[in-house]
Amino acid sequence: MALSRLDSLYMAVVADHSKSPHHHGVLEGVEALQLNNPTCGDVIALTVKFQDDIIEDIAFAGEGCTISTASSSMMTDSVIGKSKAEALELAELFSQMVQGQSNPDQEKLGEAELMAGVSKFPQRIKCATLSWNALKKAIERDNEQVRGL
């Protein structure tokens, strides 16, 4: 059975992001937020540098499956330069999308929109959302630090 062009594009982009992830590493002087997915064994250490309300820089490290690594790479591309509110909106759009909920705004995700196919594989949703969940926690932690909690 031949793959559709969209399936082929999805596979090529995911493979590229997994083999050569963008923003891979650790930012100096920033405390890493660590999350893991015990189901698959994925582990992410996310470092985010905020300038006021804007994500100035972001990087991730750790070990993950192809889906987790590609999603992390796409997530960093999607949110760098965005406000915390915009990043949280993207994280929510991504979560809904990989759970099979269509939203016309999901085009805001950029290449990460190609991860919509994950919804066909429920066991992979946690892999795809790991970095996005880490981002939400990093924003929450920074907001608490700003408020002095």
Automatic annotation (TrEMBL):
CDD domains: IscU_like (cd06664)
Pfam family, one: NifU_N
Residue ranges of the TM segments: none
Occurrences of domain NIF system FeS cluster assembly NifU N-terminal (ranges): 10-127
InterPro entries in the record: NIF_FeS_clus_asmbl_NifU_N (IPR002871)
PANTHER family on file: IRON-SULFUR CLUSTER ASSEMBLY ENZYME NIFU HOMOLOG (PTHR10093)
Protein name as annotated: Fe-S cluster assembly sulfur transfer protein SufU
Native species: Streptococcus caprae
The organism's taxonomic lineage, starting at the top: Bacteria, Bacillati, Bacillota, Bacilli, Lactobacillales
Gene: sufU
